[in-house]
Design brief:
The structure holds two protein chains of two kinds. Chain A contains twelve helices and 14 strands. By secondary structure, chain A is of the alpha/beta class. Chain A folds into two domains: 192 residues, Rossmann fold (3-Layer(aba) Sandwich); 129 residues, Rossmann fold (3-Layer(aba) Sandwich), CATH 3.40.50. In chain A, the strands form three sheets. Chain A has a seven-stranded mixed sheet with strand order 3-2-4-5-7-6-12, with helices on both faces. In chain A, strand 6, helix 7 and strand 7 form a beta-alpha-beta unit. Chain B starts with a helix and ends in a 17-residue tail after the last helix. The longest helix of chain B has 25 residues. In chain B, helix 1 crosses helix 2, helix 2 runs parallel beside helix 9 and helix 4 packs across helix 12. Chain B has one domain: Thiamin diphosphate (ThDP)-binding fold, Pyr/PP domains (Rossmann fold, 3-Layer(aba) Sandwich), CATH 3.40.50.
Chain lengths: 337, 323
């Protein structure tokens, strides 16, 4: 085990996979940073420091600094993947996905199906998502809800440095296209990471981060930590919570959720995207359909409101699900009837 | 450079296959037996064949919604394509793609595409892969005068120049983007190639109704890109003999326009006149090929009609490799 930050887990995993497989290439805006400037290549090294040093190590042919052209970045990743490469493309901010949506939604996600299963598109599209930096409506969104609904894509949302390592390596080695969502407020979080250069975490396998028999809490990414804090606080009162980290929203580990609800009978889903047609509403519906007889209270969803992400500190705090809001939802399902 | 007799016969046959494949589709679509949207390439055959006759399976192409010609020219199986368009589970894409999504990646055909302008960025990626592999292969994107107005095409042209991708932008100017005229929708009002030039690419121009013009122009373009000079662009002026889609009433056409272009701008007639006047081939050679191609198309339709249909279970297959 090595202690490292979430962002370093991204960087080292990419570097290790580039070392292992010469077909792995990186592309994106400022993944080198400083190209064409007096400062020269690597003057920046990627705005999230998730590609620092790759250019020096692997060269311009495999670390491709692109213009600000999201459609062309994802499109190029698609063409590279259809040509036998394993591109790891960075979109910088998940919010920029709108610019490139056709290439994600109509192209990489559909090639295999439209072409009758006779091809593969092993592209990884990484992007930083999420609120917490007062970056306002176009630099703060959680976009998994839209992507999870797109057949053909796999969607990954790691919450810890170790999960970054195992899931990103799986994403790069996976033969299907993968959207890899990194929460920007987690980049500086530190944790133990396995040293094994073949450590992978299979998709569709949730992680039980807290165990208890009274309430099931399901979440992903940054909010998972809030859920754990609530579970730890309630444990002191003798209330036990299963906290399930989904890790991937497509595929989704329904079995772990249903098994847990069968025991607890109470469900709270905590989701950073807006409430309508959301991951939370999807999971609540699944549980209502498949575990109705186990339920002791109506499932609760904790989402932001149906608004864009606001700017001012007070507004963003009010917008995001918080430990207090999660705790209130847990107490609500506990006190039902 | 003079083409061999075999090369001439092959080029004519390829163009004739595209022509008869689509003339037959035009007839069969009207019976209602073929489902969905179909966009015919007839009239532009010299471009697809004049480009693809230079290519090997290592070279990649990315096509458009009007893609049958590119697919056939790049080597996709006629019977597999006909079965696909008829929706059979034995089709090239198991009946999941249909006319607008035919692909054969093993042959370097990275897909027709239902989204106008979506192909160019994909070709840039394929062109970067060609450059990485260092074997002199190229990636070619076909775009029309419609796709040349899409932002994706602009992004792709700039990205190709910046990354020095081994990529060629082939613009087929058939004067209509769907039902709208070139002079209205393309702001340059004169050409497309000048746009590519403005992005920093060397450009060529040729007559897309003349196989020899396309073929000789492409020889220069390919020599330039295969030598590692980065991307290039070429514009071919050509004609679309049918509507935007099958069923298009084409009320936008001028009086006598279709008769005129079929008479004066038909690449097959031009080819036949050229090679017979130059005594490279005689009419009997070409007549024999015409008959052979017609029979091959008839056979592909027989096979497509008899081929097994997909089942409800097939809906669920081929979404992921593992899930």
């Amino acid at each position: 085990m090595t202690k490292m930050m979430y962002r370093d887990a991204v960087l080292t995993t990419i570097a290790e996979e580039m070392e292992r497989d010469e077909n792995v290439v990186v592309l994106g805006e400022d993944v080198v940073g400083g190209m064409g400037t007096p400062g020269g290549p690597e003057a920046i090294g990627g705005i999230w420091s998730t590609s620092t040093g790759l250019f020096g190590k692997f060269g311009a042919a495999r670390v491709i600094d692109t213009p600000i052209s999201e459609s062309a970045i994802v499109g190029a990743a698609a063409g590279l993947a259809l040509s036998g490469k394993r591109p790891v493309a960075e979109l910088m901010f998940a919010d920029f996905i709108g610019v490139s949506l056709d290439q994600i939604w109509n192209q990489i996600g559909k090639f295999r199906y439209m072409f009758g299963g006779k091809t593969k598109c092993p592209a990884v599209i990484r992007m930083a998502y999420g609120a917490g930096y007062n970056a306002a409506a176009q630099h703060s969104q959680a976009v998994h809800q839209m992507l999870t609904g797109m057949p053909g894509l796999k969607v990954v949302m790691p919450s810890t440095p170790a999960d970054v390592k195992g899931l990103l390596r799986q994403a790069i080695r996976d033969d299907d296209p993968v959207i890899f969502l990194e929460h920007k407020a987690l980049y500086g979080v530190t944790g133990d990471v396995p040293d094994d250069k073949d450590f992978t975490i299979p998709f569709g396998h949730a992680r039980l981060s807290r165990a208890g028999e009274d309430v099931t809490i399901v979440s992903t990414g940054l909010l998972l930590g809030f859920c754990e804090a609530v579970a730890d606080k309630l444990a002191a009162e003798g209330i036990g919570c299963d906290v399930i980290d989904l890790r991937t929203t497509s595929p989704i580990d329904e079995e772990t959720i249903l098994d847990s609800v069968e025991v607890t009978g109470r469900l709270v889903v905590v989701d950073e995207a807006p409430p309508r047609c959301s991951l939370a509403s999807d999971i609540c519906a699944t549980v209502a359909n498949k575990a109705f007889a186990s339920l002791k209270a109506p499932p609760q969803a904790v989402n932001p409101p149906h608004t864009p992400v606001p700017f001012a500190r007070e507004l963003e705090s009010a917008y995001l699900p918080s430990a207090d809001k999660i705790e209130a939802a847990v107490r609500k399902v506990l006190s039902y009837r | 450079m003079q083409l061999s007799r075999e090369a001439l016969l092959r080029a004519y046959r390829q163009m004739k296959v595209i022509r008869e494949f689509e003339e037959r589709l035009h007839v069969d679509i009207q019976t209602g037996e073929i489902a969905g949207f179909t966009h015919l390439y007839c009239g532009q055959e010299a471009v697809a064949v004049g480009v693809c006759e230079h290519l090997t399976e290592d070279d990649k192409i990315v096509s458009t919604h009007r893609g049958h010609g590119h697919c056939l020219a790049k080597g996709c199986d006629v019977n597999g394509m006909m079965k696909e368009i008829w929706g059979s589970r034995e089709g090239l894409c198991k009946g999941k793609g249909g006319s607008m999504h035919i692909a054969d990646v093993d042959k370097g055909m990275l897909g027709a595409n239902g989204i106008v302008g979506a192909g160019a960025p994909i070709a840039v990626g394929a062109g970067i892969a060609c450059k990485l592999d260092g074997k002199g292969a190229v990636a070619i994107t076909f775009s029309g005068d419609g796709a040349c107005n899409q932002g994706t095409t602009f992004e792709a042209m700039n990205m190709a120049v910046v990354t020095k991708a081994s990529c060629i932008f082939v613009f087929e100017n058939n004067h209509y983007s769907e039902h709208t005229g070139f002079e209205y929708a393309v702001g340059t009002q004169k050409d497309i190639a000048s746009r590519a030039e403005a992005f920093g690419m060397k450009v060529w121009r040729g007559d897309g109704t003349d196989f020899f013009s396309v073929y000789e122009t492409m020889r220069e373009v390919l020599d330039y890109v295969r030598a590692g000079n980065g991307p290039a662009a070429v514009e071919f002026d050509t004609e679309r003999f049918f509507g935007h889609f099958e069923g298009d009433p084409q009320r936008y056409r001028g009086p006598g326009e279709l008769d005129r272009i079929r008479e004066l701008r038909d690449c097959l007639k031009n080819f036949r006149r050229n090679v017979t006047e130059a005594k490279l081939l005689d009419h009997a050679d070409l007549d024999a090929l015409d008959a052979e191609v017609l029979e091959a198309i008839e056979e592909s339709v027989r096979q497509a009609k008899a081929a097994p249909r997909p089942t409800a279970q097939d809906v669920l297959e081929d979404v992921y490799i593992s899930y």
